[in-house]
Amino acid sequence: LRLGMLSQEACTTFKSLSRPLLPPPPSMPNIAPTELFPTRREVSNANMTRLNALPHLHHIFHSHDTFPNAPASGNNKREGLLAGIMAEKDLQLKKGAQVMLVKNVDEVLVNGCVGQVVGFYGYREVIGMLRGACEKRAGPAKTTGFVRNVAIETSGAVTEDKDGPSNKENVENDVGTTKGLREGKKSLVSQKAEERFPLVEFPTPEGGKETVLVMREEFKVEDSEGKVLARRMQVPLILAWAMSIHKSQGQTIQRVKVDLGKVFEKGQSYVALSRAASMEGLQVLRFDPKNVMAHPKVVEWNKTLESVGTNEKSSKAKDCL
């Protein structure tokens, strides 16, 4: 597939994947497959249509961007440093929104996890209820921007999730790395205390769910010497009803829908189809071998590898003579 060469058996397999996907886990019945699109405009239209259909208020999270060591060569070039970061500059959410986590936390909460926003709560409101439970837990802290084991009563009150993972630590978000904010602005410490963050339900491998308060995390861009050029503090979530094929690179998604009739660039089919965690979680529409085009550079690179491998085998054979 990566080289654009498919056997008849492979083509038959991909065509069979046009069937509807199995329903999501019973614990999270409203999670839809993430649909991959080739353009950002299609992604934005699909996500915003679903978001605007929700009968709840918008919550917008603006990122806090700093450029501690970037050259002072204009705002456009500085902003360009952050173009490759998954975290959005302006993140719009609502209760009921389908979202994807874009940062690894541990073996359960990983980059690519898809969940659903169930509300917005303040850090103090949540941690005050859980602090006693947190202090009783042992072991090293693994997270910095997440409050785990949260449950919501029917009244909307926050309480401890008695069924949640007991070995996950809740620790305060380290915002000491945000030096460089302009004077006169509120510190992120006070902002964290005042902001209402998304409370998100994520499915667990065991078929259950975990509810997590997702706060701001640090995303940074470094030069070859490890010097930080740009830093973004943002809630590590993106809308996940739809996603661009380009942005999906590096993600592993449990349930994916791909319409190959919309693919127009070489190599996009391979990237899109390889995002699924399993064949059971992949739906492929309008599969056509003609749309599976490999990029010429990838083909050439593969030939080079094969040539190197052949030469090495030949050299070893001569050494044995």
UniProtKB/TrEMBL annotation:
The record's InterPro entries line, in alphabetical order, gives: P-loop_NTPase, Pif1-like_2B_dom, PIF1_helicase
For bias type Basic and acidic residues, the affected ranges are: 159-171
CDD domains linked: SF1_C_RecD
DNA repair as UniProt keyword = yes
Q: What ranges does the record give for the region Disordered, renumbered to this chain?
A: 157-179
Residues in domain DNA helicase Pif1-like 2B?
81-120
Does the keyword field hold Nucleotide-binding? yes
Q: Which residues fall in a coiled-coil region?
A: none
One Pfam family matching this protein = Pif1_2B_dom
User: Would you say which domain of life the source belongs to?
Assistant: Eukaryota
Q: Which UniProt keywords apply?
A: ATP-binding, DNA damage, DNA repair, DNA-binding, Helicase, Hydrolase, Isomerase, Nucleotide-binding
Concerning PANTHER family, the annotation shows:
ATP-DEPENDENT DNA HELICASE
Q: What is this protein called?
A: DNA helicase Pif1-like 2B domain-containing protein
Organism from which the protein derives: Scleroderma citrinum Foug A
